[in-house]
Amino acid sequence: MTKLTSQQKSVDYRLVEMTGEDIEQVALIERSCFSNPWPKESFRHDISNSFAYTLVAKEGRVVLGYLVAYLIAEEFQIANIAVRPQYRRRGIGRSLLAAALSEGRRIGCRYAILDVRPSNIAAMQLYDKFGFGKVGRRPKYYAAPSEDALIMGKNLT
User: Fold this and answer.
1) Is the pLDDT score of 22 beyond 70?
2) What is the rounded CA–CA span in Å between residue 4 and residue 141?
């Protein structure tokens, strides 16, 4: 269990594997955070996909945030991470990312990679703190609004 205290409110949460019971809340967070959200079916598929790593941060039965990553050869692809807007800036995203990178190392991945909107300054600052660097760009990757994706990577070895 992780306990964090912020100026707004103390948050007591645990990191656990995502289950079918979490999908509705995860989809709600997804819709509140992204202009082009993943459908529920994507999350349902991922919780049974042996190449997917799914994690939620929960306070009681309430999902505060989640992360989805994929094992692709020796690469750990952080595909999706989000935290309920009212729980941001409390270390939940940092905890999710730290746990995912630890799992990537544990299973033998050599490299972690992710895509991020250049306008998502908070996410880019988090990734910088974890040692991710810019390794490329995907032109016009995002829609609504149209924006390139920055590709960021980090060695795990």
Assistant:
1) yes
2) 35
